[in-house]
Write a structure and sequence with these properties.
The protein has six helices and seven strands; from the N terminus they run H-H-E-H-E-E-H-E-E-H-H-E-E. With 217 residues, the protein is an alpha+beta fold. Strands 1, 2, 3, 4, 5, 6 and 7 form a seven-stranded mixed β-sheet that branches.
Length: 217
């Protein structure tokens, strides 16, 4: 596997060639831009993950509305979903009490998980998000009808830099790691199941929080 830095160095050498067609020059410049953006995402993700793990970034837990956070995330990711010819649905089954959490971190959780579903899906696929109150817990599931993740990859996908998708798929392999660490900080955990064949093909991710029953909206 060639690293982004190795790819950049290769194409910088290409651009230094005396005889170079305009087509190859444009292609190399495009690759340089894409790999530079990839490094930028990786650095930003590593900084965020480091802050979460070391506790250097204060995580203030206050009563928050998970449904509003989910609505914001869907709104922010809608253009990306539609550009892939996919659909996204948010189903909220009231009443949904507030939970003790952190709005910024939970927004990051939803955005990362929706982004991950987009990467593993194709035109015509859909993402369904459901938030419901069950047994005094606010439970959330994010299910896509994408290609699914094979069992040998599923057990590793939340590890550092692990990528089950092809090298052509954007990402740095830290999205699910960040989600896992955020949920741990918020006293929850990441649960995943996936299938690559059959009628349940796709990936489902779940997490839940104790409901503040006295704060039902």
């Amino acid at each position: 596997m060639q690293t982004p830095v190795a790819t950049i160095l290769t194409h910088l050498e290409v651009l230094g060639l005396a005889k170079l067609s305009n087509e190859i020059r444009r292609e190399s410049l495009g690759i340089l831009k894409a790999e530079t953006r990839r490094i930028s995402r990786m650095i930003n993700s590593m900084i965020k993950l480091g802050r979460i793990e070391t506790g250097s970034e204060l995580v203030e837990l206050i009563p928050v509305d998970l449904t509003k956070i989910a609505e914001t995330a869907v709104s922010q990711q809608l253009a990306a979903v539609q550009s892939r010819g996919m659909t996204i649905n948010l189903k909220i089954i009231p009443p949904i009490p507030l939970i003790n959490g952190n709005q910024d971190y939970l927004l990051q959780v939803f955005i990362n998980l929706i982004d991950n579903s987009i990467k593993y899906s194709r035109a015509g696929d859909k993402i369904d998000i459901v938030i419901v109150l069950e047994n005094q817990y606010v439970k959330c599931s994010i299910k896509d009808t994408g290609t699914g993740i094979a069992p040998e990859h599923l057990i590793h996908v939340a590890e550092y830099f692990y990528r089950a998708a092809s090298e052509q798929t954007e990402g740095c392999g830290l999205g699910l790691t960040i989600v896992k660490e955020i949920l741990k900080k918020l006293h929850s955990k990441l649960e995943m199941e996936s299938a690559t064949t059959g009628e349940n093909k796709g990936t489902t991710i779940r997490f839940h929080f104790p409901a503040m029953i006295d704060k039902i909206k």
